[in-house]
UniProtKB/TrEMBL annotation, chains A, B:
<keyword id="KW-0239">DNA-directed DNA polymerase</keyword>
<protein>
    <recommendedName>
        <fullName>Beta sliding clamp</fullName>
    </recommendedName>
</protein>
<dbReference type="GO" id="GO:0006271">
    <property type="term" value="P:DNA strand elongation involved in DNA replication"/>
</dbReference>
<comment type="similarity">
    <text>Belongs to the beta sliding clamp family.</text>
</comment>
<feature type="domain" description="DNA polymerase III beta sliding clamp N-terminal">
    <location>
        <begin position="1"/>
        <end position="120"/>
    </location>
</feature>
<dbReference type="GO" id="GO:0008408">
    <property type="term" value="F:3'-5' exonuclease activity"/>
</dbReference>
<keyword id="KW-0548">Nucleotidyltransferase</keyword>
<keyword id="KW-0808">Transferase</keyword>
<dbReference type="Pfam" id="PF02768">
    <property type="entry name" value="DNA_pol3_beta_3"/>
</dbReference>
<feature type="domain" description="DNA polymerase III beta sliding clamp central">
    <location>
        <begin position="130"/>
        <end position="243"/>
    </location>
</feature>
<comment type="function">
    <text>Confers DNA tethering and processivity to DNA polymerases and other proteins. Acts as a clamp, forming a ring around DNA (a reaction catalyzed by the clamp-loading complex) which diffuses in an ATP-independent manner freely and bidirectionally along dsDNA. Initially characterized for its ability to contact the catalytic subunit of DNA polymerase III (Pol III), a complex, multichain enzyme responsible for most of the replicative synthesis in bacteria; Pol III exhibits 3'-5' exonuclease proofreading activity.</text>
</comment>
<dbReference type="Pfam" id="PF02767">
    <property type="entry name" value="DNA_pol3_beta_2"/>
</dbReference>
<dbReference type="InterPro" id="IPR046938">
    <property type="entry name" value="DNA_clamp_sf"/>
</dbReference>
<dbReference type="GO" id="GO:0003677">
    <property type="term" value="F:DNA binding"/>
</dbReference>
<dbReference type="InterPro" id="IPR001001">
    <property type="entry name" value="DNA_polIII_beta"/>
</dbReference>
<keyword id="KW-0238">DNA-binding</keyword>
<dbReference type="GO" id="GO:0005737">
    <property type="term" value="C:cytoplasm"/>
</dbReference>
Length: 369, 369
């Protein structure tokens, strides 16, 4: 294998796949990245077997070939290389690569590429495409609600449903729930009903967007694939049935308020400073023409008045301050509608002028006096 | 106490003194900052008794007064405040302050200002002034060599000597040594020979510079003071005699080389990637017209050739890679002179065209085969 490329091309390809690699994987070869040169293309692959990321870039090839190099060294080394043409050279049968730059060279021991696990081939399945930016923005609106509790794997994923031409993304950790709908341009051949690991989707968010180019999603029996021109992300699906969630969304409310998202968010974050070392809940009081955010602790007290339009009955309710901040940040709207059915029932947050998103937040118990 | 100011003024004053405060000080009041309003000035003080920082800013005063507020809450709170006029209000005899911004307010419990320790008054002593930028740049050139080993306190400080109108700053951790000289405009009334804690000088570096304004240094029996228009830094001196250091600086050399600082620094840093998980030493080979930086480990090997002018005998020597990087970074010069008297003797690094700085670095043992 022998090819020449630039520092920025290498850094891009390695940076793209890096998050899929565990530098201290129990299977040593998986702590490396696979480099494969075919024609004028270098394909770099990183994988932890659950999640695989592949990035293809153009290089100047002298000989085709492949090798696996430890991510721990190659990633930092590339970052420190000078901005000159960089040549990778692996002798046939060798498991080390010499990297030549200017008058200097470094040699890194790697692994035999034949030992690298075979990656899932793109399965047949339902497929659809949408603009990368749109997907990224929608994923951000639900990913905050994904659970990190590995004992209930189904909640560590996002439900992706396509019915007709309607895409729906749902996440919940049972304390909050986020639902995003989107109208696709085309209708996949089959319906989709799959649960994708949150970790995978965080990578999709990191690696896509900043472009109106499309991303294609193919959903098979056990795997989902995200494909762009240079990028291929493959992930195992989470097995199991996603619990019914629609019935927990309140259909009515007794109090509704319209607030400026930024004002209520900033008030919540200041209040959360006073509770960060104790029970992290903050009171929200809906009264005529305003929502008051307040709490009293050993540190002191805070009282923030955010003006807004309040319909219905006055109401006091407590929320976990961090959960409320995250829900507010995910709204993606300057104005929000907060709908309540009582002090002990879930609140519904919606962007003020957007029908396709809502999130739900359970109230918290008030602190003991 | 009642005054009004802006978020940026508060953030500046609190950010300035913050590093002198231990948020979890065993003496609770020292986990706070002292706010004192006299006339139209707010003076904020933070201290851990060893190091005290005071910052004075202009505010709109309604009533004079003072209070101590916990740094843990006040610093973050100010960061989250909106950009509107901010009023602090403490009732007489109260140990809490209400902060009023727009239609909102927060109240923070504090401590009685009378309980706050008395700070060292500026002592009589030798004093001199120099531009802030000059002081900051010189301190950066020696601080990297300060020891962090508290069992030998004298090495955790920087020796500051003024003889006639010559200022000299010296630091060593016994593995490396840095000496910076500077010609003052004026001659202090007395000679100075004091050891100032490295922690104090790191704060001086952080808080000064970016300006040609002068800073005044007053050195008393037990304390040193750094004074600018808005800032007062007071620090205890380290007791004890600084060991004689001049005798360890080699007067002659058998090999001398001139190198581009950036090239040898980058080569050293790339080589250090290969040794970061083992014995962290790298070989430097001085040969005709170049210095080769190389090392071989279980990870692989590296060989970097940095061209330069070499006078004298060829020579191989090993250095701790991190120490070499730090010494090279401190040079502040595009070109350097590296002087060697043998593989087992200290190397001298100097800026190529600057007489007033040198650093010394002991060689390391080669790794075992």
């Amino acid at each position: 294998m022998k090819f020449t490329t630039s520092k920025s091309t290498l850094a891009y390809a390695i940076g793209t796949v890096q998050k899929a690699v565990s530098p201290r994987s129990p299977l040593p070869i998986l702590s490396g990245i696979l480099l494969e040169v075919h024609g004028d293309q270098l394909t770099v692959t990183g994988s932890d077997t659950e999640l695989t990321i592949q990035c293809t870039v153009n290089v100047e090839t002298e000989n085709e070939g492949s090798i696996v190099l430890p991510i721990r060294y190659i990633a930092d080394l590339v970052r420190y290389l000078p901005d000159v043409p960089i040549q990778f050279h692996t002798l046939p049968e060798s498991t080390s690569t010499t990297i030549i730059y200017g008058t200097s060279q470094v040699n890194i021991h790697g692994f035999e590429p034949e030992q690298y696990p075979r990656l899932p081939a793109v399965e047949k399945g339902a497929s659809f495409s949408l603009p990368q930016d749109a997907l990224r923005d929608m994923l951000r609106q639900v990913l905050f609600a994904v659970s990190t509790d590995e004992t209930r794997p189904i909640f560590t994923g996002v439900l992706m449903q396509v019915t007709g031409s309607q895409l729906r993304l749902v996440a919940t950790d049972t304390y909050r729930l986020a639902v995003r709908r989107f109208q696709l341009d085309q209708e996949p051949e089959q319906q989709i009903n799959a649960v994708i690991p949150g970790k995978t989707l965080n990578e999709v968010v990191r690696l896509t967007g900043g472009t109106e180019d499309e991303i294609t999603i193919i959903c098979g029996e056990n795997h989902v694939f995200f494909l762009t021109g240079t990028l291929k992300i493959a992930s195992r699906l989470i097995a199991g049935q996603y619990p019914p969630y629609e019935q927990v969304i309140p259909r009515e409310f007794i109090t509704r308020t319209r607030l400026a998202t930024r004002e209520i968010l900033e008030a919540t974050e200041r209040a959360s400073l006073l509770v960060r070392e104790g029970y992290p809940v903050v009171q929200f009081t809906l009264q005529e023409n305003s929502c008051v955010v307040s709490v009293q602790t050993q540190v002191g007290w805070i009282r923030e008045e955010v003006s807004g339009v309040v319909e219905g009955e006055p109401l006091e309710i407590w929320f976990n301050a961090r959960y409320m901040s995250e829900s507010l940040r995910a709204l993606g709207s300057e104005e929000l509608s907060l709908e309540l059915t009582g002090s002990l029932s879930a609140a519904v947050l919606r962007p003020a002028r957007e029908e396709n998103y809502l999130s739900l937040l359970l109230p918290a118990k008030p602190p003991k006096e």
